[in-house]
Fold these 3 entries.
Entry 1:
Amino acid sequence: MLCVRIIPCLDVRDGRVVKGVKFQGLRDAGDPAERAAAYEAQGADELVMLDVSATPEGRATAVETVRHIRAELSIPLTVGGGVRSEANAGALLEAGADKVAMNTAAVEQPELLTRVATRFGAQCAVVAIDAARRLEGEGWEVVTRSGKHRTGIDAIGWAREAVARGAGEILLTSWDRDGTRSGYDLDLLTAASRAVPVPLIASGGANDPKHLIEAVHAGADAVLAASIFHDGDYTVRAVKQVMAAAGLEMRMEAGQ
């Protein structure tokens, strides 16, 4: 059994870490490089940085922020936000990212996933899917542009297509749960994990280690969280200890 990965998320706006609810009401949560270094010291397996203002403002992710983080970080780093071309992806990888996450642009031009995966490898191509429960009927639809646009596209169907086009990993966020601390959308995770063969990162709604454990049992290979770490409710190490005690395979440092 592979170890479950714990992935703190840095939502970055104008060079600062921010946190909100459903991508709104953003508040300052510190310096990205300082946060990154602290989470690595706590035992984080990977880190995700998402430039939450990149797509709405129509600009590329701040490459300098990526360099700033990489200077303090040795664990894998996934970067997303405003990735609209192979050139954007290449610039981020050159700046220090190990993987690039594509969301809005991948929905609007699905061939982007294939181009990035072909040029840089599927292991570098992450599709970030923001999924919201349909207002009418069952299932979930893809939302883009930081949750402002409901596409009508079936989220599970899009996950299958994204993998077929070359995505090597899925970062699946429940828009309904993001920042609410009400737990991950377990039905969404189960449906997605059954639909695709690639690793699945659960995102949106974590409040305590129990929620992370539930996400893994629902089918997630990795769990992403922000608020519980930013607000100091838990350290990564403390979360891992609880999850290990629950019988999950975790990467623990020597002596812990």
Note: Residues 40 and 73 are 7 Å apart (CA to CA).
Entry 2:
Amino acid sequence: MCSAHATVRGFLGELVARADNDRHVIVDMEAGLEHLSRGTGRHLSRLVAVLEPYYRSMETARNVVALSAELGIDDVVVVANKVRDAADRDAIAEFCAAHGMRLVGEVPFDPTLTQAERQGGAPIDLVPGSPAVMAITRLADVLTA
């Protein structure tokens, strides 16, 4: 097993063992299936799969949801990212419904995030009223409820 995955898996196990019941530990893992197949997500109480409105991304999210279920992660939700319009929204909703994926929110495509990235700062600090930041704030409330 890759030592990096083993280290992260062990670290997350320690965090979970020591975490208070009211504390959330959020880990942003790279896109794809490798971290799940190597057991890095073994200690997760919830997995959030992020998908974008194009077929390969939706298929990857579907595979993440399926593998998570096989690994015993019971609470798997999906968040749509970079949603541009009603057609994107409809395609994502239909795909999720067709594959039994629980869609809990969306973040719109927002060019101000690119501007914040170029400035090297966090969008919540640089463009706090942007559509994406506002959507992420609402989503955080949904995910931690």
Note: The mean pLDDT is 84.
Entry 3:
Amino acid sequence: MVDLKSQYQKIKQEVDKAVIEVMETAAFINGPAVKEFTEDLAKFSGSKFVIPCANGTDAIQVAMMAMDLQPDDEVIVPVWTYVATAEVIALLRLKPVFIEVDPQTFCIDVHQIESLITPRTKVIVPVHLYGQCADMEPIMSIAAKHNLYVIEDTAQAIGAVYTFSDGSKKQAGTIGHAGTTSFFPSKNLGGYGDGGAIYTQDEDLAKKMKMIAHHGERIKYYHDVIGCNSRLDTMQASILKIKLQHLHSYEKNRNEVASFYDKAFSDHPNISVPVRSKNSSHVFHQYTLILKDTDRDALREFLASKDIPSMIYYPVPLHHQLAYKEHLLPGQRFEISESLAKNVISLPIHTEMNEEQLIYITDTVKSFFL
């Protein structure tokens, strides 16, 4: 699904030099590269403040811990997402309130948000799924109306740009009160291990999140709030600093792959290609098709027999996960998410793909239906 080895070979000289510098200085924790990467990411994203942390899940947790939420406060979260988004909510003894997604963009259905707001609602978590932004303008309007926080889960959409009705633009993660991202190796900006970061434009929130991520410390050995230990280590920061310089070209390559797939499958009766939102650019963390009248398992087996990988993101919506069934509200149904779970399939998409590979993949997929 990704070719990290080939990607590394193209930047090997830069990466190896950066890693050796960290080894030679032995500044493995909070070394200079962490501060440098944080500053570079703030400049790249347009965010006033960036707080690095250990992974994308921690990023969501730290953001929520900084918002003074109380047990049983409610957090609205899409039912069609990776479990980490809801996991943190439950770990903090908050209540995840599941919401349906838009059938075309796979992002949160903004039209359902207000119907789920109660006096206990405190946060909305739009997930920018597969690489494009949720519809943030109405989400922020609803949040302002009801005095709610918005935490953007940007793990899959770093670098995506949202366009507001007045023509202004902001990057994914920089619109809400906080935005979180992951540097898991397979992400568009991935390290060679775990890592994450939080964006915010609020100075007070930034100070608190930074303290929380460092054991609640204001200064060393003085702990003002309950915190956790969530650091981006220097080695990962040194690698991410280099890869950030290539992120626009990585995004361009992914879009070229997506365009090839689009052209190959656009008129196919059994395949629906991804819909581009009119409000957002797409960075294609995943290229996800919706199948119609197709035995998906048979297609996957056929592709595997031809040495073509595929993935299902995600086979089980959150409300069907054993750990989260108790959070389903009476009468709630998620027909769209359940349909997606049965009918989506993601094809390989990464920065190192060439035309020969793409022709082989698309011809093989189409041959399955003959």
Note: The mean pLDDT is 97.
